[in-house]
Amino acid sequence: MFTCFYIFLCPYPPPISSTILNANMDYKSTLTGLYHLLILADNSVNEKELAFGKEMLKIEGIAEATFNAQMETLKTKDNKTLLSECIAGLKKLDKTKQIRCLAWLSVIANSDGFMDKEEWELIYKIYHTELSLPLNEIMKTQKDLNLLIHGKSFQSIGIRVNK
């Protein structure tokens, strides 16, 4: 009696590189930080911003528990420091992800029908001053995100200068 041993070459995919995982986590945590800054920019958080934040979680695959824990942590951070960290995080992302982050900020800022002046200043500082991103690409991605959320596309509605 004898025993046969077989060696199988498994066609398993290679493990996902930690670089890919870290890039994805950097994107999600940066997006969460930017969301936090945006909803507090005008010192008024409204229900539509929160509702669109939930849509952002679903579309971007961000776990709600992780998001909520990060939002709690962000409450203890100075906004100026957080903005610097978010800009550094954005600079580590590829251009497509940078544009997507700014498009999300625009969608959420417009969720109540108007983009407040402080929200616009934050978005402008990041996309124009810090990253030199093309506005037309941000607006195209904004339309795509609105299509995912509403089933139809919206443009920026307006900027509220006075309250």
Secondary-structure topology with pairs:
Elements: H1 18-41, H2 47-60, H3 64-74, H4 79-92, H5 95-109, E1 115-116, H6 117-130, H7 135-150, E2 159-160
Parallel strand pairs: 1-2
Helix pairs in contact: 1-3, 1-4, 1-5, 1-6, 2-5, 5-6, 5-7
Detailed description of the structure:
The chain has 163 residues and is mainly alpha-helical. It has a single domain, classed as TerB-like (Orthogonal Bundle). Helix 1 runs parallel beside helix 5, helix 1 packs antiparallel against helix 6 and helix 5 runs antiparallel to helix 6. The longest helix has 24 residues.
Task: Summarize this structure as a short list of keywords or feature phrases.
163 residues; TerB-like; 7 helices
Count of individual beta strands:
2
Class based on secondary structure composition and strand pairing: mainly alpha
Strand order of the largest sheet: 1-2
The overall average pLDDT, rounded, is 84
CATH class categorisation: Mainly Alpha
Please give the CATH architecture: Orthogonal Bundle
CATH fold label = TerB-like
Q: How many domains is the backbone divided into?
A: 1
CATH superfamily: TerB-like
Brief characterization of the structure:
The chain is an all-alpha fold. It has one domain: Orthogonal Bundle (TerB-like), CATH 1.10.3680.10.
